[in-house]
Specification:
This protein is mostly helical. The chain has helices spanning 2-13, 19-36, 45-88, 108-113, 125-131, 134-150; strands at 94-95, 105-106, 155-161, 167-173. The protein is built from six helices and four strands.
Length: 174
């Protein structure tokens, strides 16, 4: 019953900055009460203290669990917003988070602009280079190198090969 009441109260205060401080105080208070109270004669003092520490441990863990759930919910909300933004734009968004590896992330719209279904081809830098028109490849790679080395804006117009083997003009920025 007390743990159930605690969880209800915890959910009410989870968004408060003082929540963690409050729970730390409750935990310290429980351990302190456990140390000050004397169990009845003939009982095991260590078992009594162990029970108090277990309750304090549970109370200290609940806020962490609630915080993790809150973070996961916020992440899901942000991901949903990001997907809605991707769907609402005509831009083919892509991301190359780790430049030491070939793998990239391409938004579904980027695949569709090239004539593919999402995930139909591997989203990678090496794959992207095969789509760039041969006359546009060197200037595009040079602009990318300048961007990475000197932090100059990356903004090029180049032709990319679509699934139907036609070339379309794209503005590529990063």
């Amino acid at each position: 019953g007390a743990l159930y009441l605690f969880v209800i109260l915890a959910t009410l205060f989870v968004r408060q900055k003082n929540f963690t401080f409050l729970m730390g105080g409750v935990t310290v208070g429980l351990v302190g009460v456990g140390l000050l109270l004397s169990p009845e004669e003939g009982t095991d003092h260590y078992a009594f203290l162990n029970r108090i520490i277990q309750v304090a441990g549970i109370l200290a863990t609940v806020p962490l669990i609630i915080r993790q759930i809150t973070i996961q919910n916020d992440l899901a909300t942000n991901e949903e917003r990001m997907n809605l933004a991707f769907q609402a734009t005509d831009e083919g968004i892509w991301d190359w988070r780790d430049l030491d590896h070939d793998h990239q992330w391409w938004a579904p719209k980027f695949y569709m602009l090239l004539g593919y279904h999402p995930g139909e081809i591997s989203p990678s830098f090496s794959q992207l280079k095969t789509f760039i028109h041969p006359e546009d490849l060197a200037p595009t790679l040079q602009a990318l190198e300048n961007h990475l080395k000197d932090r100059t804006p990356f903004d090029v117009a180049c032709r990319l090969k679509t699934r139907s083997n036609d070339y379309r003009w794209f503005r590529v920025r990063g």
